[in-house]
Amino acid sequence: MTFTKTTEQSSKYEHLEKMSVAELLANINQEDKTVPFAVEKALPQIENLVTEIVSKMKIGGRLFYIGAGTSGRLGIVDASECPPTFGVPFDLVNGIIAGGDKAIRRAVENAEDNKTQAWIDLQEQNISQNDVVIGIAASGTTPYVIGGLEKCNENGIATGSISCNAGSPLSQTAKLPIEVIVGPEFVTGSSRMKAGTAQKLILNMISTSTMIQLGKVKGNKMVDMQLSNDKLVDRGVKMILSEINVSYEEASELLKKYGSVRKAVENYKL
Q: Is 250 a catalytic residue?
């Protein structure tokens, strides 16, 4: 297999330490501008994976992200935002990071090199053939992630991946791989930069489009969001006002009574 880690190649920029702050920011921004175009090229791959996730969730399946370091943390961020944004159960979208929860804040030595641990972590979540597991690794070579997907494949569990190198071992392992080729980083090898941005954009696409397909958005509004603070309660009231002809106070009472924008609107009687 021919495989080149473009994410590890030398930066196009030299002598970064001699640049002014303005030059550093302008050059980083210039590199960042290339990321959405790289993501655009992968839209058909993203579509295939989202279609699979939606079909699995419609029969009771769940989504799991597995990754190490920055990739693992990005998966956790996306998973943790789904319940408050879309009102879904906390175990519908799950983020698992090599080294466990303590690795969210601090690197856990050699955790990403353990090829058997991801499957153990997934089994603890009672993984099944109704579920989908997405491995996230900028390099496409992380043993923890590859090992997890290999075991999923062996057990008939749908697998996807997000990586930033062409033809990586991870892409060869996943049944529905996504490759976003962002090229060398501004700081050589620092894949938390362009690669991380690409991964975040794709995760946004995956979770948001999946939830819309499952009916968790009406029009363009988060009608099932959790009302966990005053800002969201106010947003919910304003959503109701945009749907039915009532006063702010009446909308507030409806929201309080029914607990969600969707239920408040559906149960409103003229």
A: no
